[in-house]
Write a structure and sequence with these properties.
The chain has about 425 residues and is an alpha/beta fold. Helix content is about 40%, strand content about 25%. The mean pLDDT is about 95.
Length: about 425
């Protein structure tokens, strides 16, 4: 049978891994796909380097549009990244009748609605398993494996850089800035780590998962995003004493009022499996009505783990290449005309519980004033921990865990507590998720 011909746009870390894994496992992959899958063209600005990777049997060009214009190419794999030229090339490939595989979560989170609509109109597929959680097949699990279920919530550690930083802060008691430098030296963090440490990368990924889980349009602009830059090692220690670990989670929940879509640090009970995911590993929990809670764990980045997901998409498209487009699995799991218009909730509408750390004057009556303010905002307390003041210290740390309450109530209480003359520093607030 005629091989499926693939054009690769960009042959960096993931592109090289894709080419090498496809070459190494081509016999096994062909047995699964039913026909050979061959990368026959590569576009990269550094043509000499690209040619040295793929050898003389693959055509290397500097202009990606030569691949799109080639009628022999069946699938275009976009591994350029970013929102700019990548978006234009993906839309041009779709217009030319090519199927597209991409690892570009930023592109799909921001422009996915437009891209999926164009692909639906042209009768081609856009596959993006590699865009979320690297080698973990979470997109396939949500879109196909859990299709019988009404998904209720999902929560994931979906950024390896931030998980590595939090793991090192907990294990070694180091400050955030020191661990960030270590992560950069090890190659876990970019020279400009903003997208990772400010939660943007995780928000791109949870936006895509939320759309597939709940059948809502891709709406990255509605996500609440908070990173880990303000976390302090003392909060990680206090959380540990209370039986929790701090993780940066991407969370999406179905509620009676709408869909929650948020990324922020969370206290998670130490007994939960996801709380014990360490280093640069990723994990996603999904809770659904029929199957209950499932957990997906593995490498969320890297050359060959991500290549594994890219090639899985190539095999899927190869199998479905000749299938009537109306009988393929929809891009976002639900049929395009059956997408939900459930609203995305603002963060002040979210109901969750909290960890609060207050630096307060070490004097009588402080705790009573604080608990009075919380009670006045209809917030009940779950636990209190007070650090013993050191010799000569006139202050102490007061740690409070609350029960569930609307974020708007907590915002009001924090504003009142911050005005107390006995509260000596900005209050630290970290949300708490039991995940049960």
């Amino acid at each position: 049978m005629k091989p499926i011909q693939v054009g690769l746009l960009g042959i960096g870390t993931v592109g090289r891994g894709t080419f090498e894994v496809l070459q190494r496992n081509q016999e096994e992959i062909q047995r699964r796909a039913g026909r050979p899958i061959q990368i026959t063209m590569v576009a990269d600005l550094d043509t000499a380097r690209a040619q040295s990777i793929v050898g003389n049997h693959v055509q290397v060009v500097s202009d990606a549009r030569q691949i799109i214009a080639n009628p022999e190419i069946d699938i275009v794999v976009e591994l350029i990244g970013g929102y700019g030229v990548a978006k234009q090339l993906v839309l041009e490939a779709i217009a030319a009748g090519k199927h597209v595989v991409t690892a570009n979560k930023a592109l799909l989170a921001v422009h996915g609605t437009e891209i999926f609509a164009a692909a639906h109109q042209q009768g081609v597929m856009v596959a993006f398993e590699a865009a979320v959680a690297g080698g973990i097949p979470i997109i396939k699990a949500l879109r196909e494996g859990l299709t019988a279920n009404r998904i209720q919530w999902l929560a994931g550690i979906i950024n390896g850089t931030t998980n590595f930083i939090l793991s090192e802060m907990r294990d070694k008691g180091l400050a955030f800035d020191d661990v960030l430098k270590q992560a950069q030296a090890l190659g876990y963090a970019e020279a400009d780590p903003t997208f990772d440490i400010e939660g943007v990368d995780a928000a791109h990924k949870v936006t895509l998962m939320s759309s597939i889980a709940f059948g809502v349009p891709v709406q990255f602009d509605k996500a609440y995003v908070e990173g880990i830059t303000k976390l302090e090692s003392q909060d990680i220690r206090y959380a540990e004493q209370l039986g929790y670990r701090i993780k940066l989670l991407g969370i999406s929940k179905r509620t009676a009022s709408g869909i929650e879509l948020r990324v922020h640090p969370c206290l998670v009970p130490a007994k939960r499996l996801i709380a014990n995911v360490e280093g640069a590993m990723n994990a996603v929990m999904v809770h659904a009505d029929a199957v209950g809670t499932t957990l997906y764990y593995g490498k969320g980045a890297g050359s060959e783990p991500t290549a594994s997901a890219v090639i899985a998409d190539l095999v899927d498209i190869t199998r479905l290449h000749t299938v009537d487009p109306l009988n393929r699995v929809p891009h976002l799991a639900f049929q395009p005309d059956a997408m939900s218009d459930l609203p995305m909730l603002r963060m002040d509408q979210v109901v969750t519980s909290y960890y609060l750390r207050l630096r307060v004057a070490d004097q009588a009556g402080v705790l009573a004033k604080v608990t009075g303010i919380l009670a006045g905002s209809d917030i009940s307390i779950d636990a209190v921990l007070q650090r013993e003041a050191g010799e000569g210290e006139s202050y102490t740390d007061l740690i409070i865990l609350t029960h569930d309450c609307p974020e708007a109530h907590m915002n009001q209480a924090l504003a009142e507590m911050q005005q107390l003359t006995t509260v000596l520093a900005p209050i630290t607030r970290i949300r708490k998720e039991e995940l049960n």
